Amino acid sequence: MTEVDIIAVDPNVYQADDNQYPDDWQSETTSIGSSIYRGLMENGRRYQSLRSDDYLLPVDDPSFETYEAAHLLAIIMDSERDNPLFRAPIGENPTHILDLGTGKGNWAIDVADMFPTATVRGVDLFPPPITWMPPNCVLEVDDAIQPWTWKEPFDLIHLRIMTASWTDGEWDNIYKQCYDNLKPGAWIEQLEALAPIGCDDGSLPKDSILNSWGTTIMGSAERSGRGLDAMLTMTEGIRKAGFVDIHEKKYKWPIGPWPKDKQLKEAGMVNFQHWLSGLEGWCMYLLTKFGAPRPWTKEEVLVYVSSLRKELQNPHYHSYVRSKRVWARKPFPEEVAALKKKAAVEIKREE
């Protein structure tokens, strides 16, 4: 398995007179019923109320800021491409595209702008705070684990940062519904990140609280029944559903402007804000419900989050998270019989 290259460090990032990257980068600066829009309040955060069981992440203004930062981060990391929104080769004239877990709807809106003759649907459990969208973009409130009722098959189904959304069994069901609702020859694409923070050059001390983050949050998610390991399991889940022509692209998402490379520096700036706005929401529900050795109090979570933020602001820590994009094709009918005789589907790893 090919590793992503080690990111070169910019030695000038520590200079306070850098005008382009100033030293204040660390600052923290369907018909919808009213009950669905209000959601459920707990520990000062708002959660969706559409699904009867619990959902691990809040849906409030800080969360939508986090979604927007994640969208920009993903675009920057593929900004050298003509199309930084996805890699699946769907052609120039798709007619139906679906964005599962659309969040604030940024991806669906941008893709609708890219393909004005296509209908682009963004679906999530909570209505996004959007006041305008292209006429060919439809944002819907729905639960994707329920049977799908869309009549037209899709050219592309997109998922991004959906880790911890579903149980293992629900993930199998999601991939099956994706397969069943795509046209033959159409594509699924998924982008996920892994929680643990990485560092290649030893600049992050072993006793840093950042090193506890991955074990702490992933253990809590595992106890909740919805793991944070979608990046590790999605390729196999997509393969099991029957998809072929599977591609993988691995990334390192830097946290902070420490990389020397301009593209990665920009990504690190955005990812830092992504973490600042997202950390409390990522931690609050999981740690107050499934923390170890006992559920944490709200105050304990806030202290932990404050400590994480403080260490993320240290420009001498060259930290990052790993992420991966997978895209795969639904086979044509004449391919299916031949595929049953093959031992395994090849995974194509992109540089």
From TrEMBL:
<dbReference type="GO" id="GO:0008168">
    <property type="term" value="F:methyltransferase activity"/>
</dbReference>
<dbReference type="InterPro" id="IPR029063">
    <property type="entry name" value="SAM-dependent_MTases_sf"/>
</dbReference>
<protein>
    <submittedName>
        <fullName>Uncharacterized protein</fullName>
    </submittedName>
</protein>
<dbReference type="Pfam" id="PF13489">
    <property type="entry name" value="Methyltransf_23"/>
</dbReference>
